[in-house]
Write a structure and sequence with these properties.
By secondary structure, the protein is of the alpha/beta class. Helices cover about 30% and strands about 25% of the residues. It has a 5-stranded parallel sheet, with helices on both faces. The chain has a 3-stranded antiparallel sheet with strand order 2-1-4, covered by helices on one side. It is globular, with a radius of gyration of 16 Å.
Amino acid sequence: MKLEASAIGFGFGRGVPILDGINLAIESGRILGLTGKSGRGKSTLGKILARHLLPTKGRVLIDGAAPASSGFNPVQLIHQTAIFAVNPRWKIGRIVSEANPPDEMLMLALGVRRQWLDRYPHELSGGELQRVALLRSLTPGTRFLIADEITSMLDPIAQSEIWLALLEISARRDIGILAISHDLALLDRVAVQTVTL
């Protein structure tokens, strides 16, 4: 399976486009790195691939076809700051179960502890909440993951643990990952190839 950005363009209003003619392909089970200076549109491209934004030009394709406009999205986006992606009034168990019941094997692989399920988001650290965000996104139907600076705010140990888990999950479940980061050393370790925007 392949996720493609085909001649993607995007801009706000009549200003200079943020993206223009971008082509990119992510294959199942592979990790592609994406880097570039701030303001070049890396996060915007990630949102377009995950259908959070619609391109002003070009198309997003999955195996050569346009993705369904409704229903479950096989392309999931994980943000840099997980606290903004969860309902602060819900306990973690409800947040995770919104998509699917918690997968015990996946919880173990990501280091999500069962006692966290009875807590609220503000009761977890940034690293703990990012693990929860990954758990929620990695449902049985997820084929691609857009990882937008997901460990940049974390300490080196948490960063290493999360990426080691993602490498194993990606290989085992044949999930393609777009790893967006300014950290070239990280991308050298996790990605099979890195492109610059």
